[in-house]
Write a structure and sequence with these properties.
- Two copies of one chain form a homodimer.
- Chain A is of the alpha/beta class.
- Helices cover about 30% and strands about 25% of the residues of chain A.
- In chain A, helix 3 packs parallel to helix 4 and helix 5 runs parallel beside helix 6.
- Chains A and B meet through helix 5, strand 11 and helix 12 of A and helix 5, strand 11 and helix 12 of B.
Chain lengths: ~375, ~375
Amino acid sequence: MIEIIRPTFVIDKEVCLQNIERMAEKAKAHNMRFRPHFKTHQSAKVGEWFRHFGVDAITVSSVGMAEYFAMNGWDDITIAFSLNILEMAHINRLAASVKLNVLLENKEAAEVLAAKAQNPIGVYLKIDTGYNRTGIPLSRTGIIDAILDTIAANKKITFKGFLTHTGHTYAARSTNEIFSRQFDALLKMKSLKAAYLKRFPKVEISMGDTPSASICSNFSGVDEFRPGNFVFYDLMQQNLGACSMKDIAVRMVCPVVAKHVSRNEVVIYGGAVHFAKDSILNTDGKPLFGRIIIEKDGEKQLLDTNNYLSRLSQEHGIIKTTPANFREINVGDLIEVIPVHSCLTANLAKTYLTTDGEEIPTANTYL
Amino acid sequence: MIEIIRPTFVIDKEVCLQNIERMAEKAKAHNMRFRPHFKTHQSAKVGEWFRHFGVDAITVSSVGMAEYFAMNGWDDITIAFSLNILEMAHINRLAASVKLNVLLENKEAAEVLAAKAQNPIGVYLKIDTGYNRTGIPLSRTGIIDAILDTIAANKKITFKGFLTHTGHTYAARSTNEIFSRQFDALLKMKSLKAAYLKRFPKVEISMGDTPSASICSNFSGVDEFRPGNFVFYDLMQQNLGACSMKDIAVRMVCPVVAKHVSRNEVVIYGGAVHFAKDSILNTDGKPLFGRIIIEKDGEKQLLDTNNYLSRLSQEHGIIKTTPANFREINVGDLIEVIPVHSCLTANLAKTYLTTDGEEIPTANTYL
């Protein structure tokens, strides 16, 4: 067993496998291709766990990540990030060896792709269904048609369908709002599919943010399902109602270095360079960067929200506690912290440790 | 010249060298040992630049970082982070080959150090002068005496002095407040030094957050000076009045991937995994994650705060612009973004690029 002496990202493999299985079965039940997003775990080893559940196609969020997973045996990859035309040489190299899909949302990038694509490349058009981050607004069919006409000039390029990320489910104030935002996006995507079905009989709809993927059950007309965060889940998802506490598969395990009785604060080795800085609102109205698990009488216990990771600087984390729990924690203890946003926390780790005691490298050493 | 195709951390070496020189001269003018904090740049190559200005002693914030810089020729290192007793084996190994100082702030850690130190180790006591993050509150001389008695049991350990990080200067609402907080901390540290001078004639005071190090000029009685961020500076420091815009030595250079005319928003490849997520308040009351520089008529121009990095997700950044500037920016352009918090932004880079065209590895590949 590896001895933990520094902040360590630990995965409960059993919970993680359950999360993957549940989502794979959901995709199957709704006749959707499961193309999970690998940006959350960014690890070839965790990727292998997906293979047990029949996954052979993946989503990534950068060309570098596509290169990493291609090197690790994945040969059907969608880069779910609007085409960065400066990376065309890398994209051509990748497309020489794997089935590669890219995203387009403007004519400028479509023109570069049409001019430079040397190997077969699939294209999804990125549609904005209300998140207002990026993508083509539904009403602008002129842009859609212009892109389709442009890429038709290069026979290597195949139009696959329409893709959206319903990221505004993350801002939902209730699960009802997640349902309504997903349903609204679904209607929009289906209307788009209907409009282009005649010209492109194989046109697909690709969807799948984790909040809606976890709780919604209407996926009629959806061809592809791309959630990512669900592999680990986190407090943000739990807070949204997308998962329960027992579904969260990851912890940061951090050494206690100091205690301050006058403030009932415990200082851990574990800061912004280990957790990243996303927070949710705690019950006291203050930012919460993590929930705390300590051992009491030999049993692990999740503490209530009066005990939480309340501040982060580069390497320090400050845990606020109740006086009673303060007394249970000692300098040199290891404390488990449930992270707020597992994607960004995982991104900072060079390796993960599993509850089986296995140390897993991540793409961080490659990217 | 290296072609930039992905988000890239770029250092203006000339500005960086000026920042180092200015701070080295300040230390010299006030007869302080300059022991710069290397947690901001975390790079052996940038470390070498300090040698030109006579620096031979450094500060780091983790044992791993100490190991990295020891491997790279530094032999006088203070780990300015309260002793993590779980890392004693690493600390003993380090202390076998370099002059190592560690921080103590409680009796528990002091006892472990006294029991386990095998090689000469210097000790500073971490004092809380008002930041309330960690350290011994000034009034608790009982703890100070207990730690001093404890470490006296091991002849390998030498008490060096008192160290503080006046981090509450970062929350100052004016430069006046930076002055008053530094002065308050200085008085506290001097009173401590006076109280222990008889028993420890060589007792030192070590101080030096970047805001006060940059603007204050009263360092009477201070023996050691440990600022770190000044090497790069950033918008947070500029916002505090600790530096001017021209002192900021770093940029994130990011490709433009999309434009949304209905919102006057530009989408860059450059997100939370490149910038980290610290923000300052913009003039419009909204969080600002970076200021924007674009080329106009062949000249670089810093845009006003109506144009700023306004949102970050994992890989995407959203720049809000005025309509006029929106028209100047094209898909495929490279945009320069001045980061809010250079320490956390630099921490995410695997390599830096200098304006001389040199690619510099960072500790990220080691840590």
